[in-house]
Amino acid sequence: MITHISIKNFALIDDISISVNQGFTVITGETGSGKSILLGALGLVLGERADLDAIKDKSKKCVIEVLFSIKNYQLTSIFKELEMDYEDESIIRREILPSGKSRAFVNDSPVKLQLLKKLGVRLIDIHSQHETLAIGQKEVQYKCVDHFANNKENLNLFQQEYNVFTHLKNQLLQLTNKQTELNQAHDYNLFLLNELDEAQLSEGLQEKLEEQQQELSHVELLKEQLSKALQITEEEEVGSLEQLRETYHSINQLSPIKPIYKELAERIKSIQIELEDIVMEMNRQVDQIEDDPQLLEDVNIKLNKIYQLQKKHQATSVEELMQINSSLADQVLEKDQLSDEIEKINKQISLQHSNLLQQAEQLYKNRKKAIPKLEEELKTILSRIGMPDATFKLELITTKSLSNYGMDDLRWKFSANKGSLPKPIEKVASGGELSRITLAVKRILAKNSKLPSIVFDEIDTGVSGDIGSKIGEILAEMGNQMQVISISHLPQLAAQAQHHLKVFKTVQNETTSTKISQLTEEERITEIVSMLGADTNTKSAVEHAKSLLNR
CA spacing 20 to 30 A to 272: which of 71, 148, 287, 435? Predict the structure, then answer.
């Protein structure tokens, strides 16, 4: 529960520090005095987004710090889950810097806002005025019934499995869509693949065929020129090779005379050896030259096929065509693999669906069993707070399809008057009725709740003073099980509280500030008289206030 609140430089607040007691505490103050500022500050501590405009003095940082005493609330596990340091007396601090940057700390360790929110919902339930309308929302209605039916663990498990189920269905949809696309392209892809396979492509094939084409297209020229070159080189007496031999013989005889001649002889010998090797290679080439028109035709056909494929696939090389061939083979194979994968996921979906049906049936049974008792308790509490003829009908209808809540449809129907048929609560309940219904629900849930604190923002909206007194009694009862803080404008409700805080404005040096103070017994009487709209010097008004306070 909250034991202390410290707020600095926030909205109209300069610096306030207030202790908060166990039980039922009421917060009162004139309209515009800043009661909602306290809720805003608590919201920031619980992870709400910060606004730079919330800083009063833009040159200083805003600091909100709340001390929680949580020893008896079994919260160690949630701290461990969120990787936070647990303390029996835990401090949550929120800072807004002049730059607009926001920081949050739990027991002086920095934390992210999303983690702070997860912790916050386990510490405080803040019921704002707009939340009253939420009682007509399906999510809230299921939450109330499931809490009352002790379905929390069952529902959490079901929703985890349902998330897996929806994920599998999304996977199946993606795969079937992909399969449809592949099916549409399959025949053409298979044709292209076969066409490329028939070309028997290999690395360097195009260059090899183009070289072979050149050779087969110039057989006569090759024979003529190679023969001429061999004749020039090998001709007896005047051939280049014979002349080179004679040159070597002449220079080699001079080797003993001077080293340069020996070097020249060696260089000539090297040229002679190289020329002899060239002649051998030319002879080999002459022997390999073959006039083969059929082979030339085959080479031309293969090359033309490669050129056509390159144009068709907008490729510049055989290697690119081979990559395309591999990609097409993968797509054709993927189609076959997709069928296996789809079959596998279908089996998983079927198994998951079967498990969910069993879990949904248990959720339904627990809800069905709990609803009559919940209806009766709601009617009992509403009767106490001025709605004796109220009728609640919580309809639970099985459905054919699964949802995040199970396999049923929950409808809250309500009638405030005797003889009227219950209709959907969101359509027929007035603002004041919704406030009281919400309170009744909160009262019932508080019995089993381990939540340390709950805060109500004007839960008495739209009700009379007498009903406000009854609402105060309910809040006081809740205060025996948890810390209850209520902002109120009704003196009849405020009088039921064990502790009383007053929010008020002060003006100093033409600057308005919001203050808060813990009222003494005498100050409470004065505040109640003021809330009654009477003069504090009027004896009857004072006696009335005392009677409300049961003093």
Answer: 287
Residue 498 lies in a domain: yes
Segment 110-138 mean pLDDT: 82
Q: What is the pLDDT of residue 155?
A: 94
- Looking up residue 83, the CATH number of its domain turns out to be 3.40.50.300
- Residue 454 near residue 127 (C-beta atoms within 8 A): yes
Give SS3 for 64.
Answer: strand
* Final residue in a domain of this structure, among 336, 363, 392: 336
**What is the rounded average pLDDT of the residues 286-290?**
79
Q: Is pLDDT at 461 greater than 80 in this prediction?
A: no
Same-domain status, 101 and 195:
no
Let me know whether 188 and 328 are in one domain.
yes
Alpha helix positions (H), 385-464? 425-428, 431-448
Give the model's confidence band at 518: pLDDT under 50 very low, under 70 low, under 90 confident, else very high. very high
Q: What's the mean pLDDT in 386-404?
A: 92
Looking at the structure, do residues 330 and 189 belong to the same domain, yes or no?
yes
User: Above 90 in pLDDT, residue 497?
Assistant: yes
Looking at 321, 336, 351, the residue that finishes a domain is: 336
Spatial distance between the Cα atoms of 243 and 249, rounded to a whole number of angstroms: 10
No. of helices (H) and no. of strands (E), the chain = 17, 15
In-domain check, residue 380: no
Question: Half-sphere exposure of residue 47, counting CA atoms within 13 Å on the CB side?
Answer: 18
Pairing mode, strands 89-96 and 511-518: unpaired
pTM: 0.66
**Between the CA of residue 359 and those of 141, 160, 302, 402, 517, what are the distances in Å?**
19, 11, 67, 11, 52
Mean pLDDT of the chain: 87
Supply the range of the domain harboring residue 540: 522-551
Q: Is residue 192 part of a domain?
A: yes
Q: Give pLDDT tens digits for 325-350.
A: 887 777 766 677 788 889 999 999 99
375 close to 394: Cβ distance less than 8 angstroms: yes
Question: What is the tens place of the pLDDT at every residue in 55-108?
Answer: 888 889 999 999 999 998 889 999 999 999 999 999 999 999 988 889 999 999
User: Measured on CA atoms in the order 415, 421, 425, 428, is the torsion positive or negative?
Assistant: negative
The two structure tokens encoding residue 299:
């080479």
Count up the domains in the chain and report the number: 3
Instruction: With beta carbons less than 8 A apart as the criterion, state whether 353 and 158 touch.
Output: no
Distance CA 166, CA 175 (A): 14
Per-residue confidence band for 126, with pLDDT thresholds at 50, 70 and 90: confident
Q: Does 399 fall in a domain?
A: no
Q: What share of the chain is helix, strand, coil (3-state, %, to 5)?
A: 60, 20, 25
Same domain, 102 and 213: no
Alpha-carbon distance values, 219 to 213, 231, 234, 288, 431 (Å): 10, 18, 22, 10, 104
What is the side-by-side order of every strand in the sheet holding 511-518? 124-127, 453-457, 483-487, 24-28, 499-508, 511-518
Q: Are strands 483-487 and 453-457 parallel, antiparallel or unpaired?
A: parallel
| Claim to verify: residue 207 and residue 302 sit in the same structural domain | yes
